[in-house]
Amino acid sequence: MGKARSWLIVPAGGVGSRFSPKLPKQFFPLGQSTVAQHCLSRLVKVPEIERLVVPCKVRDKCWSSVPAITNDRVELVEGGIDRAESVLNGLSALTHDAIFSDWVLVHDIVRPCVTLGSIMKLRESVNKHPIGGILVSPINETVKLITEHGQIKSTIDRRICRLAQTPQMFRYGELVKAMEHAFKNGQFLTDESSALERLGKEVKIVEGRADNIKITRPEDLILANTILEEQEKSECE
Length: 237
Prior knowledge:
The protein has helices at residues 35-43, 83-93, 116-126, 172-184, 193-197, 218-233, and strands at residues 6-9, 29-30, 33-34, 49-56, 74-78, 103-106, 132-138, 143-146, 152-156, 162-171, 204-207.
């Protein structure tokens, strides 16, 4: 068997109505560009990626503000009603090309500050793992477990907790099986790792960078812009 190839899926079908009712957050201005352009322009620099599949609303005119989609390796495909279905659509787009042991990286379109160094660290750390792994970052604040009525139930030891980031990197066949199982059983997923976890698979963690933030609230755009400026100054991208 030859060397496992690598593919990249970037789910981008979300409308982010809580962020803004007018425009999906991936198309919001960020610096001199947009969130999606910053993200994809970094991802196309990752070496040895066969194709970047972007499940999204293909006919959305906002894609005209994202020059990175004209790259020969970037392919837009129709997204689903939620993240899990979009990722499944992305995996389906690779059916005729990817094999079971290939690697698939999944990255949030709204994480534009991810560095090439972090992605390469993940790939090198997980390269020989049978299932795959994800980037994580430590938690610096005190973590509280709360009740449904808004009361504190207990304090969690943050030393054994991590924040899940993307990319998340898994064997193509393993990820397909896990995502299909979750979808058929109506399981709600916020990331791909949880689909593997529910099948009892061991997922490796790789320490990432705290500045690999996910844009969730409008103020995150200000923080992301500052991070990108600092990364550019330190030539870290």
